[in-house]
Every structure is written in C-alpha cells, then in structure tokens.
Amino acid sequence: MYVETPVSTYTLNENQAMRETGVSRYISIYMGEAYMEFLWFIVIGVAAGWLAGQVITDGGFHLISNTIVGMIGALLGGFLFRRLGIPAGSGILVSLIVATIGAIVLLFVVRQVRKA
User: Fold this and answer.
1) What's the CA gap between 32 and 43, in Å, rounded?
2) What residue ranges do the domains of the chain occupy?
3) What does the pLDDT look like over 32-75, one tens digit per residue?
4) How far is CA 15 from CA 25, 72, 91, in A?
5) How many CB atoms lie within 10 A of CB 111?
C-alpha cells in the first residue's frame, strides 16, 4: 500500500517568505546589537580619553585626540588586563575603569615620546 504524504504544507513562496523574514530578523537584531556595542565603545572612549586628559595634564590634547586616545586606550587596557591575568569582569563602570587605565598608559607613553 502506497500512501503519499506531503513534504510541506506551505507553498514555495510561503516557505521563501518565512525563510527571508527569519534571516532578516536575525540580521537586524544582530546589527542592532553591534551598533549599540559600537556606540558604547565610542561613549566609553570619550569618557576615558577625557578622564585620562584630566589625570595627565602636561601638554594637552584636544577633545578629538583625547577621544581617539580613549578608544585606543580601551583596547590597550583590555589587552594589558588580560596579559597580566587580571579579571576585568563586565559592565559599563568596569569598562570605563579599564579604558581609562589604558588611556592613561597610552597618554603617558605618547607624551614621553613627544618630549624626546
């Protein structure tokens, strides 16, 4: 006895629409999270650069340079903390502290190179 069972109850267009909706929803959620992470990275970089500029006051960079130093310092601070085996944890405050320490180290090195 041969019984024919349908493979799918949806038509090709409905399957395609469901697949595209799922993929586009996944991409939009992922991109939204990526944009928010990048936005927080910039905000923390600005704050860390400003704080590092307040701590190391000889010379003086302007806001844009301090922001760039803060963002690079955030990367440097994360690298240094991992390299030294210090658990950084998570959260905005911890990220700001790590980024500020990295920015202070970077500003110190940059200003020493400028003096030489």
Assistant:
1) 16
2) 36-115
3) 677 777 888 888 888 988 888 888 876 556 778 877 888 888 88
4) 15, 46, 41
5) 15
